[in-house]
Amino acid sequence: MRWFNHVTVAGSVAAVIDPGMVPLAMLGSTAPDWLEWIGGTAAGRKVKHRTITHVLMTWLTAAAFFGLVWDFRGWGLAFTLGAVSYTHLTLPTSDLV
User: Fold this and answer.
1) Taking every pair of C-alpha atoms in the chain, what is the biggest distance, in angstroms?
2) How far apart are CA 88 and CA 97, in angstroms?
3) What pLDDT digit, counting tens, does each position of 55-65 carry?
4) What are the C-alpha distances in Å from 71 to residues 50, 64, 66, 67?
């Protein structure tokens, strides 16, 4: 799936819930990919595509944390729900479940 599709789905879902959170959800919807690049740069080695950043439970755990424990104006929850939409949409094409 292309980033355009991920951004469109996350933005559409966020717009129904809270239109002010659309940009964060759209940013979060591409986070699993760009976090691989950041992690690879920080670690000094290439991170394999569709590994830990593409695991649905990782993002659901983060969303639960932000939703139930701590969140500043809903920003963390919007970001992680964008990432949840990404991992959920790529689940049928992923080896990780």
Assistant:
1) 40
2) 10
3) 888 888 999 99
4) 27, 10, 5, 7
Structure tokens at 11: 């933005």
- Secondary structure of residue 68 in the 3-state scheme: helix
Query: CA-to-CA distance for 34 and 17, rounded, in angstroms?
Result: 25
pTM: 0.76
Spatial contact of 74 and 18, defined as CB atoms under 8 Å apart: yes
What is the distance between the alpha carbons of residues 82 and 7, in angstroms, rounded to a whole number? 8
- The whole-angstrom distance between residue 38's C-alpha and the CA centroid of its chain comes to 14
User: Among candidates 92, 23, 96, which has minimal Cα distance to 59?
Assistant: 96
Q: How far apart are CA 37 and CA 29, in angstroms?
A: 15
Say how many C-beta atoms besides its own lie within 10 A of residue 12's C-beta. 13
Res 23: pLDDT = 95
Kindly state the tokens that stand for 54.
Answer: 């593409």
